[in-house]
Design goal:
The complex is a heterodimer of chains A (102) and B (700). Chain A has three helices and six strands, in the order ββαβββαβα. By secondary structure, chain A is α+β, with helices and mostly antiparallel strands. Chain A has a single domain, classed as SH3 type barrels, CATH 2.30.30.90. In chain A, 50% of the residues are buried. With 700 residues, chain B is of the alpha/beta class. Among the domains of chain B are: 170 residues, 3-Layer(aba) Sandwich (Rossmann fold), CATH 3.40.50; 92 residues, Helix Hairpins (Orthogonal Bundle); 178 residues, no CATH class. Chain B contains 30 helices and twelve strands. In chain B, β5, α3 and β6 form a beta-alpha-beta unit. Classes of the chains: A alpha+beta (102), B alpha/beta (700). Chains A and B meet through α1, β5 and α3 of A and α3, α10, α11, α16 and β12 of B. β5 of chain A pairs antiparallel with β12 of chain B, so a sheet runs across the interface.
Chain lengths: 102, 700
């Protein structure tokens, strides 16, 4: 289990837990960042400290420091091959994830 | 009969709204908060005209602030808002899962719902199709596929809306996701029992509605929220319930949110048909563009170039239009002078009323142009990338990433910048930006700088090739920008202190801008400016004309000025501005500049007896200024006085139009007054330091 902010761009991972409480955590959850959800780290900002991730078909940016509250398990890396069914980032995957949390 | 249009941000909701309502809309606020509300009308088959209004785009009904609370208050009909008869929920067909989260919440509120799935054309381009019948089955509400930008499916949508208006039960299927855990059901019941009766006017709420409120309360109410109208009794029960849950090692947020998404995930596989490999291609297009536009070096460069273009065009493209407006005003003025005899009424018409209207309308080109650019950037999705790129810089100044473009455009004019702060969610961010943008060197200060620099500083060069006058001008820009950033940092840590709110920024897929939507929102902003700030400006211009023209003791303009109320005020305040190196005539000029900064130039023309037709290039005025002496023969204007004047103009708040705009955006007079006081105080101190410091150092 590692922090989302520390995985390499292009890596796909599965969200395990979000530490912390309060409004920020609730907003993350409501954007679809739930334990068990696949996420992909798209890029890290060259200057500044934002990271961009893909979850449930949407692209979100978080600050690296705040993203450290998301703990993930890495699953693979590299861009998805074009034209093939990809369990994480395309339609089938993003809509039919089985993870429902606890 | 009212239909509310709701949905996530970036779903094309506004485009749909515009398509449905046409041109006759009224722009206003939700009562009590600075949240836009647009009201229009729609003709439904067999039903005639129905009212339609929009809700701000939101990801969820749960709220942390008064502004976010609007979503549930307006939908559920918590006074002073009236619940709509039907909710038209717009979802983005290409990002269905997250969009359906809001849909579940709205359905839970037990309101008749119609679901419009937008972007079906984008889906088709990808070779995908949604099973709308399956969605209708599972969600229990009518589902219509549309493309707002192409105008597809709209007739069908109107027919379905008419259906549901006639038979509301068709859109009220009851809860989709139903909580199962006994503990959660207990929490909901406990809270539903203490929901204030004021939230449900017209009698006790249906059990579904109370439970929906209970879920909302469980998710929204926190120790440090900024919600309004939450009785302590409700807070207490919410607190207790969270404690109970934690004692059992459960988290209510997790349970509810995961429950809803679980419901969605289990069914969304059936919602999508023909999932083809092309999905990758289109999706990757946005990512490939971002690889360029968000590139640390290239992306930033492109961004700077784009900002340069925006900035430059605000000056150069708006100028001809401003020129046309000024000529138009001049032409009308001359026309009136030709028709009416020379008397006070004629003066009131030309110098009071017409000048006032003119000084409002003259802002319009820049405001329209700015909102055109902002609209394009927002509609294409590029604005989110700007916030992404500028986040680090802005955060270190305590500002929001979205404040960058308003701040940049305040180099042209602060008023549209103030109006543009509405895009920021947090009140604190909006107010901080508004307090700081008027410090940036706006275009109206340029005539004053040109006059002062041209009159008092030699057209020589330093180091053999750097023109003194040019350097001074650039210096003024740098000076004001630095002061603005310092003030942002200081205010952000003191008066407007706020914790750095964690950032969740969505980067929507790039889309071609919908010109109809962009143009319409541009006109609306222009209209808002004209009616609101315009009123204040007009009143102040007329008041100023009165001050400058009465009492009417002489036909000689400069004597009349001396004896006028404004002249008297100028002479009264002279002691306060003497330490800055200014005399009473400059004082009168400063009063005149309060209407609009460039009025300083024409006022100085009147003061020095040349008449008010001068502009800043006038050699005569410059000479007059240079030759002006005190009673003892000392020159009134020295380069040091010039510098002091420049600095004063750079920092002082001398634009009632800006104050009017700030008043509108903050909904109170407190902040405009503060703005005026702190900026003018800062200006006084800076001028004082420069002038007295200069005297001490021996510059006469």
């Amino acid at each position: 289990m590692i922090q989302l902010s520390s995985i390499a761009p292009g890596t796909r991972a599965r969200l395990v837990a979000i530490v912390g409480h309060g409004g920020f955590r609730r907003r993350l959850l409501e954007m679809g960042l739930l334990p068990g959800t696949p996420v992909r780290l798209v890029r890290q900002a060259g200057i500044g400290d934002l990271i961009e991730l893909e979850v449930r078909g949407c692209h979100l940016s978080l600050r690296r420091s705040e993203a450290s509250e998301l703990l993930v398990e890495a699953e693979g890396s590299g861009p998805e091959p074009a034209g093939r069914q990809d369990p994480d980032s395309d339609s089938v995957g993003r809509l039919a994830t089985s993870g429902t949390g606890r | 009969m009212q239909i509310a249009v709701a949905g996530n941000p970036n779903t094309g909701k506004t485009t749909l709204f515009n398509r449905l309502t046409g041109l006759h809309v009224k722009v206003g606020n939700y009562a009590g908060v600075t949240v836009d509300r647009t009201d229009g009308t729609l003709d439904l088959p067999g039903l005639g005209t129905i009212g339609v209004y929009d809700l701000p785009g939101t990801y969820s009904l749960s709220a942390r602030s008064e502004e976010e609370q609007i979503a549930i208050s307006a939908l559920a009909g918590v006074p002073p808002y009236a619940a709509p008869d039907v909710v038209l929920l717009v979802v983005d067909g290409t990002q269905l899962a997250r969009n359906l989260y809001l849909a579940l919440q709205v359905i839970e509120l037990d309101l008749p719902v119609v679901l419009a799935v937008n972007m079906v054309d984008a889906l088709e381009a990808r070779g995908e199709r949604l099973d709308l019948e399956a969605m209708e089955r599972e969600l229990g509400v009518p589902v219509v596929g549309i493309s707002a930008s192409r105008g597809l499916g709209l007739e069908r949508l109107k027919a379905v809306l008419a259906d549901v208006v006639n038979a509301p039960e068709r859109g009220r299927p009851g809860w989709r996701w139903k909580p199962q855990e006994a503990s959660l059901l207990e929490h909901i019941a406990a809270i539903a029992a203490v929901i204030p009766s004021t939230w449900t006017p017209g009698g006790p709420a249906s059990p579904r509605r109370s439970d929906a409120f209970a879920l909302w309360a469980l998710l929204s109410i926190e120790e440090d929220d900024e919600l309004k109208g939450i009785p302590e009794s409700l807070r207490q029960v919410v607190r207790e319930r969270h404690q109970l849950a934690r004692a059992e090692d459960c988290d209510i947020h997790d349970q509810v949110i995961a429950g809803r998404f679980g419901w969605i995930d289990a069914r969304s596989g059936t919602f999508l048909l023909d999932a083809a490999g092309d999905a990758h291609k289109t999706k990757r297009l946005t990512e490939r563009i971002d690889a360029l536009l968000l590139h640390p070096v290239l992306g930033f460069t492109i961004f700077l170039v784009a900002m340069g273009v925006v900035f430059q065009s605000l000056f150069s493209w708006a100028d001809p239009l401003i020129g046309i407006i000024e000529s138009g005003v001049g032409w009308l003025s001359a026309g009136i002078e030709g028709v009416l005899p020379a008397n006070l009424f004629r003066d009131f018409l030309t110098q009071g009323l017409l000048a006032g209207v003119g000084s409002v309308v003259v802002f319009l080109p820049q405001i329209l142009l700015l909102f055109l650019f902002l609209g394009i950037m927002e509609d294409t999705g590029y604005m989110a990338r700007v916030a992404f790129l500028m986040d680090r810089v802005m955060k270190s100044l305590g500002l929001h990433g979205r404040a960058f473009v308003p701040m940049l455009t305040s180099f042209a004019c602060a008023i549209p910048a103030v109006m543009a702060t509405r895009t920021m969610e947090r009140r604190r961010d909006r107010f901080l930006t508004m307090m700081v943008v008027p410090l940036m060197t706006c275009a109206a200060r340029l005539p004053v700088y040109t006059l002062v620099i041209g009159a008092l500083f030699p057209p020589t060069t330093v180091l053999g090739f750097l023109p003194v006058q040019g350097l001074l001008m650039i210096g003024m820009y740098l000076f004001s920008t630095i002061v603005a950033l310092v003030c942002a940092a200081v205010l952000g840590r003191t008066l407007l202190k706020g914790p750095t709110v964690p950032l969740i920024l969505e980067l929507p897929p790039y889309r071609a801008p919908h010109w109809g939507t962009v143009m319409r929102s541009m006109w609306r902003k222009g209209h808002v400016f004209l009616s609101e700030a315009g009123r204040v400006i007009l009143v102040c211009t007329i008041a100023l004309w009165l001050l400058l023209s009465f009492p009417n003791r002489s036909d000689d303009p400069s004597v009349r000025l001396h004896e006028s109320y404004a002249g008297q005020v100028g002479r009264t305040i002279e002691p306060t501005i003497a330490p800055l190196g200014f005399d009473w005539k400059i004082g009168v000029g400063l009063i005149g500049a309060f209407a609009a900064r460039e009025v300083f130039v024409s006022t100085m023309g009147v003061v020095y007896g040349i008449g008010d037709e001068v502009d800043e290039e006038s050699i005569t005025l410059r000479e007059k200024i240079r030759n002006e002496t005190h009673a003892d023969g000392r020159p009134v204007y020295t380069p040091l006085v010039g510098l002091s004047l420049l600095v004063f103009f750079a920092l002082a708040c001398q634009c009632m139009s800006t104050l009017a705009a700030v008043r509108r955006e903050t909904a109170t007079w407190r902040w405009p007054v503060f703005l005026f006081v702190y900026m003018t105080g800062l200006a006084w101190l800076a001028s004082f330091t420069i002038y007295q410091g200069g005297l001490l150092l021996g510059f006469a």
